[in-house]
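User: I've been trying to design a sequence by hand for this structure and keep getting stuck. Would you show me what you'd pick, starting by listing the structure so we're on the same page?

Assistant: Good idea, let's start from the same input. This is the structure you sent:
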């Protein structure tokens, strides 16, 4: 069976197409996200856990033909190959994630625990992204989630548990800074440009930032 297009693969296709033709006047994939910053018993940050729910249209497209037994339901086993393909492709786009410990950029290791679930017409990808080296972030640990090119529009859920610090040392708090809502004209501009090429002139934030501050 042919491999289905992964999220990161679609991003690469869009980047190529954008060089030769106008892009559509909106992002091509919408993701509603949650995240966990996972601490080890010694107080070091050891991993991030991502929970990404894709929009209904993308969910329908990417799961075509995966109901192998024709029962009208998609099981974790039927979605296992797609989960593997998506996670294997994400290093090409930096996992749509950056992380800093006490202001120092961190590198990621190999993702684990990848899985997909399809419920109420929405496909959700969950995976754990370990830091290559656990980070002893005595003062702060920050993450940024999103696609600066705006081909994939990430939105962190508006809820108290949108970004949590699991097993963090006592007294640590999480602050989340979401990008402002964009009007249609700005959405069109971002969809037609790679704003990473001109970050100083765009002046626009399309990623969500979260910071864990500890005493």
């Amino acid at each position: 069976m042919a491999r289905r297009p992964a999220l990161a693969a679609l991003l690469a296709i869009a980047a190529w197409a954008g060089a030769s033709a106008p892009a559509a006047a909106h992002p091509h994939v919408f993701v509603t996200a949650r995240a966990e910053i996972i601490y080890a018993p010694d107080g070091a940050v050891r991993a991030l856990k991502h929970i990404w729910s894709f929009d209904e249209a993308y969910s329908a497209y990417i799961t075509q033909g995966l109901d192998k037994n024709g029962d009208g339901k998609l099981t974790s086993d039927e979605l296992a190959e797609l989960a593997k393909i998506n996670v294997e492709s994400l290093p090409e786009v930096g996992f749509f994630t950056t992380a800093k410990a006490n202001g120092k950029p961190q590198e990621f290791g190999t993702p684990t625990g990848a899985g997909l679930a399809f419920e109420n017409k929405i496909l959700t990808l969950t995976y754990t992204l370990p830091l290559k080296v656990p980070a002893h972030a005595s003062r702060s640990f920050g993450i940024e989630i999103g696609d600066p090119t705006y081909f994939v529009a990430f939105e962190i859920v508006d809820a108290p548990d949108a970004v949590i610090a699991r097993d963090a040392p006592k007294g640590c708090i999480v602050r989340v800074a979401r990008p402002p809502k964009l009007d249609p004209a700005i959405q069109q501009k971002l969809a037609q440009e790679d704003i990473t090429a001109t970050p100083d002139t765009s002046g626009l934030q399309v990623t969500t930032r979260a910071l864990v501050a500890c005493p």
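That's my pick for every position. To get oriented when you compare it with your attempt: The chain has five helices and eleven strands. The chain has one domain: 7-213.
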